[in-house]
Amino acid sequence: MFFYALISGYVRSGCGEKAVNLFLELLDQGIRCESGCLVTVLDGCSECKNLDLGVQLHGFVIKPAKKVLDSFSSKNIALFNAILVGFMETNRADDEDAMVLFRQLRLGGMKPDFVTFSWLLNLSVNQACLVKGKSLHSYTIKMGFEADLRVSNALITMYAKCGSIEDACQMFNGMNGHDSVSLNAMVSAYSIHGLGKKALMLFEEMKREGFAPDEITILALLQACSYTGL
Q1: CA 21: distance to chain centroid?
Q2: Is 130 exposed, middle or buried (0-12, 13-18, 19+ CB in 10 A)?
Q3: How many angstroms separate the CA atoms of 73 and 56, rounded?
Q4: Which among 19, 137, 172, 227 is most buried, taking Cβ atoms within 10 Å?
């Protein structure tokens, strides 16, 4: 913990080279570092422009998550999702590694569930990657999860934030039913794309259907009005 704090302090102070050198000393002494420390050292590599070490660390960062999964004799999707979420929360610097773990899941014969897809769709949002999002959407259809309300809601948000309001609308309109999350996602989608009048119309429809607005609804409506000058 002390060494991790010291490495973090070096990086925050702009002394990336000192952070990297300390990390290498720890490795020489056989001291193991957690994945959070490795991510900090990656920042230090960027600071001192040490590309070679950065590339090596990139492969090193993902190994702990794989080892944790491999260490269990009985594997199930709940275990995988727990490791996936923990890995994503710890390693925000490189979301692509989560997709590597997802491929490991598929190669291992385990079937993803709605939790898996919801988290992976968030990656597409974070990276604003429509191609990756559409690929995951296709896979949800193949696995029979497109009709799951939670996955559908995540798809609406993904399409809207990745720039395709048309796909978001198609997803929303094709759903068998909606909940408050669905409606908030669509109101936010209209807001993001400057379609304030449509956001307000959907809000009125929400009220007619008996849905009570919450803080997210109000925020999205305020944004819609601000973006469109209403």
Answers
A1: 31
A2: middle
A3: 29
A4: 19
Which residue, 58, 32, 35, is CA-closest to 45? Answer: 58
14-42, pLDDT tens digit by residue?
777 777 777 767 665 666 555 556 556 66
Q: Is 55 exposed, middle or buried (0-12, 13-18, 19+ CB in 10 A)?
A: exposed
User: How many CA atoms lie less than 13 Å away from 162 in the CB half-sphere?
Assistant: 23
Q: Residue 148: which of 117, 114, 181 has the closest Cα?
A: 114
For 116, 128, 145, the CA distances from 142, given in Å and listed in that order, are 14, 23, 8
pLDDT in tens, 155-203: 999 999 888 999 999 999 999 888 888 999 999 999 889 888 898 899 8
Count CB-CB contacts under 10 A for residue 210. Answer: 6
- Could you write out the DSSP letters of every residue in 73-132? SS--HHHHHHHHHHHHHH-TT-THHHHHHHHHHHHTTPPP-HHHHHHHHHHHHHHT-HHH
**Closest residue by Cα to residue 202 from 215, 190, 193:** 190
